[in-house]
UniProtKB/TrEMBL annotation:
Organism lineage: Bacteria, Bacillati, Bacillota, Bacilli, Lactobacillales
Entry similarity comment: Belongs to the UPF0340 family.
Source organism: Floricoccus tropicus
HAMAP family: UPF0340
Protein name as catalogued: UPF0340 protein BG261_00680
Matches recorded under Pfam families: DUF436
InterPro entries in the cross-refs: Antibiotic_NAT-like, DUF436
């Protein structure tokens, strides 16, 4: 797998999703990642620490430039908990859980984020404004309602299918309501 190409594809898609989502400074962005899928394998069967480092590092770089917080979703072995900076957990009053991610229990994205973040903590849930899903990991449970699909400019990173979500406030009221 060509890591330079993975980085290039990731940068193209993350910038596109940031722009299309209208996410703002100080909001949370969630990443779901299957390095197995990026590598051409089946989710959970061929994890790559190197791919995780490239993708998480690239996304973290682009989000940090905009003061957007990254939450990295774990696999089902950690109940899809999220790794965030302690600052984020405290700011958003997120419930911390006790676990340290591993390549096959948490995934390559979480392992990469654990090394990259200044003070990483696992939390049970977030309500992110937007997110990107690389490898069909199902990030929807961590994006606020109402969710709006985004079609990233690149449909694949490596061999992994890519989707994205943003959100908007709920429309409430009846026929007299104005938006």
């Amino acid at each position: 797998m060509d890591l330079k190409e993975i980085e290039k594809q990731t940068r193209i898609d993350i910038i596109d999703v940031i722009e299309k989502s209208n996410i703002k400074s100080g909001q949370i962005f969630v990443l779901g990642l299957s390095s197995s899928e990026v590598n051409g394998g089946v989710i959970g069967k061929n994890s790559s620490a190197e791919i995780g480092q490239v993708i998480v590092g690239t996304i973290y770089d682009e989000l940090s430039k905009r003061n957007i917080f990254l939450a990295v979703q774990a696999c089902e072995h950690l109940n899809r908990a999220l790794l965030v900076e302690r600052e984020v957990a405290e700011k958003f009053n997120l419930e911390e859980v006790s676990v340290i991610p591993a390549l096959h229990a948490g995934g390559s994205g979480q392992v990469a984020a654990f090394k990259l973040f200044n003070d990483p903590v696992e939390v049970e849930h977030v309500k992110a404004f937007a997110g990107i899903d690389i490898g069909d990991t199902s990030i929807g449970m961590h994006v606020k309602h109402v969710q709006i699909p985004i079609r990233p400019v690149l449909k694949e990173i490596g061999a992994a299918h890519v989707t994205a979500l943003t959100s908007r406030p709920k429309l409430i009221g009846g026929e007299r309501a104005q938006y």
